[in-house]
Predict the structure.
Amino acid sequence: MKIAVLLGGSSPERYVSISSGKGIVKALGDLGHDTIVVDPALGRNQVPESALFSQTVGDRPPVDEFMAAMSPRNYLTTVESQLFDDVDLAFIILHGKWGEDGTIQSLLELRSVKYTGSGVTASAIAMDKVMSKKLFMHHGTPTAEWFDYRKNSVPRPELVKQEARKIGYPNVVKPNDQGSSVAINIVGSESELDRALDEAEEFSEVIMIEKYVTGAEMTVGILGDEPLPVIEIRPHEGFYDYKHKYTKGMTDYLVPAPIDKSFSLKLMEMALKTFSALGCKTFGRVDFRVGTDGIPYCLEVNTIPGMTETSLVPKAAAAAGMSFTEVVDRIVKLSLEGK
């Protein structure tokens, strides 16, 4: 079968996507598939695999000057090109905006190309942190208190500071539609808020300010309709930001998480329920903060989680007895079945 691996892209998670794609290409080759590597941000100017895979994940997202040349307009050119003429499946491993938010999925549907992961609507909802939280609440999934605002649409900073006081410090400032903890900051006081808002506004039109939940960070991978073992994430210092996610040795991953079996099953059940409530399918990951009150507060659903050597879904699958290649094979089969 011929599979196009879509990686790279125009989001700040470009290098993470390339790192994820490298392992997937190898696994697909081991499974006997014919693969082509496609970076939709390059349009018709595709480059050899070796050139793409030489780009590695650093401790910060790529700089704006570099990303300016990676136009999302090229996605249209790429998908309509001859690259997809005889492709049986597109394996999407694009992280973040334009890859994980329903954009590339809609273009592939217009081209009648089957693809991995969730559909257009579920992808768009899961990428939108505000909309996701509204659905969490509708379906009874606990989530931390928050408010949001649109850049340049409210008098900043006083109104935002008033709302931040209401939910109380510390709180978390997030761009609404980014992943990999890009531009996320934990704010401990009003004096720190402006700087965090300035950074978040560089990446999104909508900013979320969320009550920080003191406690343990847990995540549950989903494969098909089965939750994988719970992982507890323990960064060595600070919080689980971009640097801690993609730098070896800066975070400990405890899998299975050292929690009671009954609580583990509860988290897995909540994760699958939340994943399904957003309409997601095939594979993904659901993140929680377990507060000191013992309540698991859902942070977000990831529809295209990282598949690098430090990523969480492969770690959870290994704890369940599945190799990385077996996970990739399962994703391909589930996608072809439409599940």
